[in-house]
């Protein structure tokens, strides 16, 4: 253990900072990930500890402590650095252009599977238009279920109004 203490005490602060910068640049700019960000941050904190504390035992045992602390706090640090909200955290409100898409009927695949012997059951029946559900797909890919309406068809362009409780209603139909 004394060998490890001696190796850590022989580390130079400038070399630790240089290694941390190289790992940070490699990780962010070349690899494009945040996988090595934890190691880089640990080296930065270790260089600060080593600058102020000369005891090799304390410096050595601070390495796993800092590593675990940064691991537990990494979600907090990443959330601070990213200002964009996740799609489930962002609430839309207002009027948007959308394309009407046929919502997938959960029973249609079961009807097809269980009706594989009888070809008439496997073919979708267009006369049951009232049982179809439609959704509005916005330009950014979000989808909202639409209330039942006989004027809707797949591929139609509409303008929808989205309220604060994430419900959509059709404001204008385009042909």
Walk me through what this model shows:
With 175 residues, the chain is of the alpha+beta class. It folds into two domains: 2-81, no CATH class; 94-173, Nucleic acid-binding proteins (OB fold (Dihydrolipoamide Acetyltransferase, E2P)), CATH 2.40.50.140. 47% of the residues lie in helices and 17% in strands. Helix 2 (13-31) runs antiparallel to helix 3 and helix 3 crosses helix 4 (56-81). It is rod-shaped and about 80 Å long. It starts with a helix and ends with a strand.
Features:
175 residues, alpha+beta, OB fold (Dihydrolipoamide Acetyltransferase, E2P), five-stranded antiparallel sheet, 6 helices, 17% strand
Derived from helix and strand composition plus strand pairing, the structural class reads alpha+beta
**Sheet with the most strands, sense and barrel status:** 5 strands, antiparallel
SSE sequence, one letter per element = HHHHEHHEEEE
The rounded distance between the terminal residues' Cα atoms is 78 Å
Proportion of beta-strand residues? 15-25%
Q: Total number of β-strand segments?
A: 5
Briefly, what is this?
With 175 residues, this protein is of the alpha+beta class. The protein contains 6 helices and 5 strands. Helix content is 47%, strand content 17%.
Task: List the SSEs and their pairings.
Layout: H1 2-9, H2 13-31, H3 37-52, H4 56-81, E1 94-102, H5 106-114, H6 119-122, E2 134-138, E3 143-145, E4 157-162, E5 168-173
Antiparallel strand pairs: 1-2, 1-4, 2-3, 4-5
């Amino acid at each position: 253990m004394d060998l490890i203490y001696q190796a850590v005490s022989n580390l130079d602060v400038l070399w630790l900072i240089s290694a941390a910068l190289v790992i940070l640049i490699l990780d962010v700019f070349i690899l494009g990930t945040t996988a090595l960000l934890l190691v880089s941050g640990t080296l930065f904190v270790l260089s600060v500890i080593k600058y102020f504390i000369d005891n090799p035992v304390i410096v050595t045992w601070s390495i796993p402590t800092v590593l675990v602390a940064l691991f537990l706090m990494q979600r907090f640090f990443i959330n601070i650095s990213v200002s964009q909200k996740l799609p489930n955290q962002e609430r839309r409100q207002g009027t948007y252009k959308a394309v009407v898409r046929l919502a997938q009927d959960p029973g249609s695949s079961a009807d097809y599977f269980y009706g594989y012997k009888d070809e008439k059951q496997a073919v979708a029946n267009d006369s049951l238009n009232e049982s179809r559900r439609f959704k509005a797909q916005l330009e950014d890919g979000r989808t909202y279920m639409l209330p039942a309406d006989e004027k809707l068809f797949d591929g139609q362009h509409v303008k929808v109004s989205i309220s604060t409780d994430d419900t959509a209603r059709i404001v204008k139909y385009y042909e």
